[in-house]
Every structure is written in structure tokens, then in C-alpha cells.
Amino acid sequence: MTVMVCTKCGLADDSPKPMRCTKCGGRDFYASTPSAFAPKKKTVPTTDEAIAVSVANIESSPTSPTVTLFDKYGGVPTISKIVRAFHKEIMQRAHLAAYFEGIDLVVLAEHTVKYIAFVMGKPAEVYTGRDMYTAHAKYHIHGMHFDEVTDVLKDILMHSGVENADIEIIMRRVESLREMIVV
After folding, report:
1. Do 44 and 88 reside in the same domain of the chain?
2. Residue span of the structural domain in which 168 resides
3. Low-confidence ranges of the chain (pLDDT < 50)
4. Helix (H) or strand (E) holding 74
5. For the chain, how many structural domains are there in total?
6. Does one domain contain both 162 and 101?
7. I need a labelling partner for 60 at 20 to 30 A (CA). Which of 49, 71, 86, 89 fits?
8. CA contacts within 13 A on the Cβ side of 163
9. pTM
10. pLDDT at 54
11. Which is nearest to 69 in space by CA: 132, 121, 146, 28?
12. Which of 10, 30, 13 is nearest to 180 (CA)?
């Protein structure tokens, strides 16, 4: 079963074509297949319309599962290496490192790995951190610093062997968070 996931906050929505995210109000969604280890939801269609939507979803789903970017690049071990290199580069830039004063960098790395895994196609259940607005609001992040951080991430992805087309997909998802992170 395909679930639509908000690109801003990661909230999963079971409706086939959600208009707005109920959590953050975002309008951009992408299709995700829930993890085999996620808890199963029991739903009972109550109308003929619900049954018709279920049949349409089954008929439109591909017969073979698609490989996510998460799987393509080796999952958590690869993402962990990318995040370590990313944080190392960020912390070498004093004006960016200032945003991380007083933050437990181990916890930050764990959340970053989970979020990048989510961005690369791992089901939303993996990322359970605070929504992006709540996590970043008190830091008053400037647009130029957001741009610099995204440039660093893009460079790290390129040096890690991620293909250009895949980098563009990842960067579009990260860019969709701009309004929730920048002052």
C-alpha cells in the first residue's frame, strides 16, 4: 500500500491525493511504501467509494517494488558516512558552527541520519524527530546560511558517489524545507 508523505515534515497521509498536510500545511507530497516492520493498520472500507479507491490503488501499483535512493546507496551505513562528513565540514565553518553551540552532536547526527534516510526514500516511520519548524525556529537561521549548508550537503553527496540525478532529487526535497527553517 502506498502512503503519501509530506516533504516538509514527514507526516504520512493515507489518502490517495492529499491537498494539504494536517500537521504543517505543506502541499508537496511524495509516494512512499511503508516499511515491512511498521505496524499494520486495519482499515475497513465503509462505502462503495472507499472500495473503488482501494481497487484503483491496487491496479495502479507496480508489480515489482521500486528501489529507493536509500536502498540504492547502501542504507544507514552509507548515510552515516555522509552525515559525518557533512557535520565535519559544517563545524569547520565558524559562522555555521555557532548555530550548534550547546547541542549534543551525537543526538544531532542520529536525527540527521534518520532525516536523510527519510529524504532518500526510507519510510516516514523512521524519522520521528520534531518537525523542522519546531526544531529550527529558535536559531533564526538566515537564508544565506541555509544556502551554504545545502551547498555543503550537495558537495558531500557528490564526493560520496551519489549520481547527479539523485542529488537533484535529494536537494529538491531539502529545498522544500526552506520556509520551515529560514527566518
Report:
1. no
2. 69-181
3. 35-64
4. none
5. 2
6. yes
7. 71
8. 8
9. 0.62
10. 45
11. 121
12. 10
The residue behind cell 505543506 is: 26
In total, the chain counts a number of residues equal to 183
Give the residue carrying C-alpha cell 527519510.
Answer: 118
Is 97 in the same domain as 77? yes
Measure the CA–CA gap between 11 and 129, rounded to whole angstroms: 11
3-state secondary structure of 55: helix
C-alpha cell at 17: 491525493
Residue identified by cell 482501494 is 54
Quick one: 84 and 104 in the same domain?
Answer: yes
User: What are the tens digits of pLDDT across the range 83-131?
Assistant: 999 999 999 999 999 988 999 999 989 888 888 888 898 876 555 567 7
Contacts 24+ apart (CB under 8 A), 169-178: 169/69, 170/69, 170/116, 170/119, 170/120, 173/7, 173/30, 173/119, 174/119, 174/150, 175/150, 176/7, 176/8, 176/26, 176/28, 177/7, 177/8, 177/132, 178/143, 178/146
